[in-house]
Design goal:
The chain has 1 helix and 8 strands, in the order αββββββββ. The chain is α+β, with helices and mostly antiparallel strands. It has a 5-stranded antiparallel β-sheet, covered by helices on one side. A hairpin with a 2-residue loop joins β3 and β4. The relative contact order is 0.14.
């Protein structure tokens, strides 16, 4: 006995086979597209997070800079009658100022260490009052600071500075300094976007001012 298959049955099997192949192709393309989209979204989230971190860091940096400005502006003779400025380096400054507003001048030191801005405070002790180096309390004033010898943190000017001109050459004699320039170079995440941002201010030493 012979059996015959209708052309319609062949057509259905052919259509079914083509539909399965098309489905596999579409699924593969969709999966690839989904991976690309997810990678794009993930990169955007990371970049947005770093941008938000940068904004937050800028606020903290400005706060730290404002505090330094106030302290340096009010630099005065120490409780031991030492000159207001002790150290005038490119990455370190030491001076006497009423850091905690207790009417007693502390010995304040700012310096860069391991990409952090550090602050050291020495309270005067004894009678007569003296500043003991071993009593220095050091804390981080601000992190992720990129200042180094190629982009210094401090520059100094004497009484002849009138808004333009070069800073004093190194080594700086603290006795002639009348104005201090502070320049922050800060990053949120080292070697990642967004890049470094810069904050600068110039502070006149109120208790030493002459013709500035």
């Amino acid at each position: 006995m012979m059996y015959f298959t209708s052309p319609k049955s062949h057509y259905l099997r052919d259509r079914s086979g083509m539909t399965l192949i098309e489905t596999l192709i579409v699924t593969a393309l969709f999966t690839m597209l989904l991976v690309v989209i997810l990678n794009f979204i993930n990169a955007g989230i990371k970049l947005n997070g770093r941008a938000l971190g940068s904004i937050a860091n800028q606020r903290v940096a400005r706060s730290a800079l404002d505090k330094m400005n106030r302290e340096i502006r009010e630099a005065a003779t120490g409780a031991n009658n030492e000159y207001p400025l002790v150290t005038c380096g490119s990455l370190e400054i030491t001076f006497f100022s009423d850091y905690d507003l207790d009417d007693v001048k502390e010995r304040v030191r700012y310096f860069v260490q391991d990409q952090k801005l550090m602050r050291g405070i020495i309270e005067p002790t004894g009678s007569p009052l003296t500043y003991v180096a071993d009593n220095e309390v050091v804390k981080t004033a601000f992190g992720d600071i990129l200042n180094d010898s190629s982009y210094v943190l401090f520059k100094y000017y004497n009484s002849s500075y009138a808004g333009t001109g070069s800073s004093l050459g190194s080594p700086v004699s603290c006795s002639v300094v009348r104005l201090v320039e502070i320049a922050f170079k800060v990053d949120t995440v080292i070697e990642m976007q967004p890049g470094a941002f810069y904050l600068t201010s110039k502070v006149q030493l109120r208790n030493l001012k002459s013709n500035l």
